[in-house]
Amino acid sequence: MEWLNSELINFAAICKHLSLTEAAKELGKSKAQVSRQLAMLETALGVTLVHRTTRKLVLTDHGKSISPLALETLSKLQELNYRARSLSDCISGKFKITMPNSIASSIFGSILRKLQERYPAVIFEISSSNKVENLLESNVDIAIRLNDVVDDNLIAHKVGNYNDVLISNNSNEKSSTLLIYKNHSNKEEIRKSYCDVIEVDNTSILLNFVEQGVGLGVIPNYLLKGSSHQELLKVTHTYSTEKSMYVAYPYQNPLPRKLAEISSFIRLELTAILGEK
Predict the structure, then answer these.
(1) pLDDT for 1 beyond 70
(2) Contact predicate 12/71, CB 8 Å
(3) Which Pfam family, an example, fits this chain (predicted)?
(4) What is the C-alpha separation between 97 and 129, in angstroms, rounded?
(5) Is 157 domain-assigned?
């Protein structure tokens, strides 16, 4: 029965993604292991659960019949795992924080250093991604998010506001070339004023390009706070629209001490940084 539980969890991940590669990523296994466990489950049950084509996986009728229960079981196990990791009242053990690349590469370094000094028994793991992760599925304790948090399963605390700014290096203020983050929410409106627009998928690279005189750049103003870039770059315009930053984590009652203390510390630090002039 124990091995069967493992195969069913494996099958649930396959149902969720319809991809051996993505299922393997979620389960922390190799693609070959996932495929092998699926074959073992099909052999044990005596039915085919998944058709394998060259392009994708397709559930058979047998697979579809148990898919909802398998997915529900996977979700419950992920929630159980998250809550079990939060039971300890001691400020120690692993603690995973996810945030956008722009925050990880700019203002969070100083906060992480203080966290290490304050909580030496905690092993911090930092996930830098612009993808909005499911915190329970990814075993994430805290997420730093930009703009509104719409997930009802999360508790979100606003830590402050920021603005986008237009920057140049000290000798290139009149450039007609604009560098802008490729997923910027107001990209189409801003680009109308420029002859040449270069889209960049990483704000750190965008900053380096501006420093090297490639063109002007649009960035969130927190990227300049407390960094060496301030000496090399000049803010030529501040956009009026304010955007918000949040610290979020899955709802729990009561809130574990480790999560409560670390989240409170991060919120205070971010609020102080965003409030700096």
Answers:
(1) no
(2) yes
(3) HTH_1
(4) 11
(5) no
